[in-house]
Each structure stands twice: as C-alpha cells, then as structure tokens.
Amino acid sequence: MISMFTSISFERKFGCMNSFSHSFTDVCKDVLLIPKELVDVSIGVGKLKETFKIYVNQWDSFDVLLQRDPLRNCYFINDGWETVVHYMGMQTGIVLVLRYTADYIFLLTAFDLNGCEIVAPKSNDSPIDDTSSPNLEVPQITEDLQHQSDVEESNDTDSDSDYVVSNESSDDIDDADFDATVSDYEADTDGYPLQIVWYCSKHFRLNVKVASLSRIHRTLKMTVENLNGVDTVIDFRQEKHGKGFRYAACQFTKKFTKPNGIYRNMRCKFVYSEEKGKLILKKFYR
C-alpha cells in the first residue's frame, strides 16, 4: 500500500541514516513511509510523541507527527503531511527527498520528472486557501549558533592541517560542551538577520539551524566574503555530535583567516545573508 524507497543515505562514519527518497504516488498523498532505521537509530523512538517540522524552503515549515504501524512494523508521517502535499502541489511521478537534520527538523526537496528542483514559494507571496492554510513559521535563526569548537587549533600557526577532511577526526564528543557555551548573538543594524562572533582560536563550525538555512547539505560548500568584498569558497564536512548534524569548515585558517590577516586570539564578526547565500565578514579585532 505504501511506496518503496528509491534511495536511502547513511552517515558513512557513524552508520546513521540521514536521508531517503520516495517516488510520489497516489498513496503518498495521505501518508509517507519513514525508514525504520531512521527512527530507531537517528531520531529515537522516544521522540515520536513530539511534533516534528518539515521545511519546504528556507522560510516555511509545517508541523507533522510521526507514528508507528505495529502491523507492518514501520513508521510513517500522517498528521500534517496532507497539508505539505497541498502546499507543494505535488503530482504523481515527482521524487521527494527528505533529510533529517536534528532537533525534530526535516528538510524536504522535490524534483520534477526532468530532475529539476521544485521551488516552493514564500507563504506571503503565494497564499493558499484559508481552509487548508498550514501553520507557517519563520525559522528562529537567532537561536544558539555554536561558533566555538571543543577542539583548539594547533599552536603552530604555519600549519596547513587546519581541519583536513578525515575519518579519523574526533566527532563523538558530548553535546554538553556545545550547549554550555554562551551565545555571542547581537542585534544586527545592517539589515542582516544573523550575526556571529567567532574566536579565531577555535575551529569554525555551522550548527544545524544555519546549515538548514544555507542548504549547505546539498553542496558542502559555502562562500565567505572578506572585508574587501572578495569571495572565498570554503569546503565543509558533516560531523555528528550526539543529537544533531553539524558542518565544520575544512582548512578555514589556510584558506580564509590567514590570507585576511586574522590570527589566533582575534575575534571576527560575520553576518549570514540569506539573500546572497553567504557569510560576510564585517570586522575583526583583538
């Protein structure tokens, strides 16, 4: 009765499932099957009583509930899913890719028959009928962004080994170290919704909140603009710390901080621009 998965993706190092895809059928209009491993390993059965959110773009989210079917020994999205289908205008044959990040958040991407991404409009640009209006919310992008790492950079400032992508990296450190850090958010007067203060003595990371806005999970790359307006493309790698997926910059010191005269014990202020889709360096100081 429920469509089979067309693909399933696992975290290579940790063996945790993080995404899957469906070919949309008539059955999918009412219910969407969730891989059992995703719930058992990545999400946790104990979270099924909570409300999850599905983001269909960078602005709009829908509340859904996950349920278990004891007869078929599987899990599915039921309550709230029909609203997502209506809002996206889904048709038979399109491919749905659903990615679980963390903090009860799913990212939904749809592709048409030609393999092109179907872009959902902003809710305030294309309002839908009041009778089926979803519970849309603007993501709280000024929530905690973990800008400080648990691992200090090497004392050798000439080393080029800053965050080389490696499976040997220690990514299994408890989340408590991150959650205890004091946030450095401030109100931004330049019209940007998100401002980050980052200490150069720490590795640069993006948490899942900012990662979901930048959609970095699709390319593992992000553009960082320096004070002179020059762009540098920085590679990121995905890492997992207990309850969520984070993205760590690879060779950030070599590619960005050193060329811009930024060294240890200096503080940098970045803003993230949704419109430009990049991080912008505003200033740095000791």
From TrEMBL:
It is found in: Nucleus. InterPro entries: DNA-bd_pseudobarrel_sf. Residues 146-176 are annotated as: Disordered. Keywords: DNA-binding, Nucleus, Transcription, Transcription regulation. GO terms for molecular function: DNA binding. Coiled coil: none annotated. The keyword RNA-binding does not apply. Residues 151-161 have a biased composition (Acidic residues). One of its GO terms (cellular component) is nucleus. This is Putative DNA-binding pseudobarrel domain-containing protein.
